[in-house]
Design a protein that fits this description.
Structural class of chain A: alpha/beta
Number of helices of chain A: 3
CATH topology of chain A: Transcription Regulator spoIIAA
Radius of gyration of chain B: 15 Å
Helix content of chain A: 25-40%
CATH superfamily of chain A: STAS domain
Number of helices of chain B: 3
CATH class of chain B: Alpha Beta
Strand order of the largest sheet of chain A: 1-2-3-4-5
Oligomer: heterodimer
Strand order of the largest sheet of chain B: 1-2-3-5-4
Distance between the termini of chain B: 22 Å
Largest sheet of chain A: 5 strands, mixed
Shape of chain B: globular
CATH architecture of chain A: 2-Layer Sandwich
Shape of chain A: globular
Number of strands of chain B: 5
CATH architecture of chain B: 2-Layer Sandwich
Distance between the termini of chain A: 26 Å
Number of domains of chain A: 1
Chain lengths: 98, 133
């Protein structure tokens, strides 16, 4: 199961498993986003390199336009993946519980 | 437990179901799931994406191991490709030098406790072990 939706407060909520089978769905959604993008990953259970690729591509596009992606509510095991891939140096990340 | 899967990303949900079942049967720590899921997906996706010369299903075996869990993926009637021998990724590169590809196998090598590749009779078998810690 994977869902990505724009909440009333302008935050994009991501839920479930962002794997290679769901990457196109995520990319299609994020390609529509303009300006600063806040992604709430509080309900994201799993992300693979396909999902990381979606985040990276979108972040680069938005950074090129002077904004970018901020990741909030990031759980420990998702943060571990970001750390192993060096994404903790590329993204503004707010861990869960902060 | 072993199961064959079609060469389609939509099989990932069925692989997850298999992994859930194995973890339940073996009483493995849930903390190991993330690494097992990620390594299995990355290796499966790599086979589906690059071993396009075959239409054979991919065999996945999950076996109890003294240290934790051993996972084997076997691809049939394919050319040799050793995923343990891929180049490294510069994770310290600035954003404008980073590209979406190439991270998957790098993450597998970094996250599993051991990994082994063998190629025989046009069968490509990759196995990895995730330690109980």
């Amino acid at each position: 199961m994977f869902e990505i939706v724009l909440e009333d407060d302008g935050i994009v909520a991501v839920e479930g498993r962002l794997d290679a089978a769901q990457a196109v769905k995520a990319q299609t959604f994020l390609d529509q986003v303009e300006g600063q993008c806040v992604l709430d990953l509080g309900k994201l259970e799993y992300v693979s390199s396909a999902g990381l690729g979606v985040l990276l591509k979108t972040h680069k596009r938005l950074m090129g336009a002077g904004s970018g992606i901020k990741l909030i509510n990031v759980s420990k095991h998702i943060h571990d993946i970001f750390r192993y891939s060096g994404f903790d140096k590329l993204f503004d990340i707010v861990p869960a519980g902060n | 437990m072993q199961q064959k899967f079609k060469r389609n990303f939509n099989e990932l949900k069925n692989i997850v179901t298999m992994t859930e079942s194995v973890f339940r049967e073996l009483g493995l720590q849930p903390e190991l799931r993330n690494v097992v899921d990620l390594a299995t997906e990355e290796l499966f996706v790599n086979m589906v994406t690059y071993n396009t010369e075959t239409k054979e299903d991919i065999l996945i075996e999950m076996l109890p191991h003294a240290l934790g869990l051993e996972v084997r993926l076997t691809d049939y009637d394919v050319e040799r490709f050793d995923p343990t021998n891929v180049g490294t990724v510069n994770i310290d590169a600035p954003l404008d030098e980073r590209t979406p590809g190439g991270l998957g196998l790098y993450l597998v090598i970094k996250m599993v406790d051991s990994i082994h590749y063998e190629y025989r009779s046009r069968q490509s078998k990759i196995s990895f072990i995730v330690d109980r810690k």
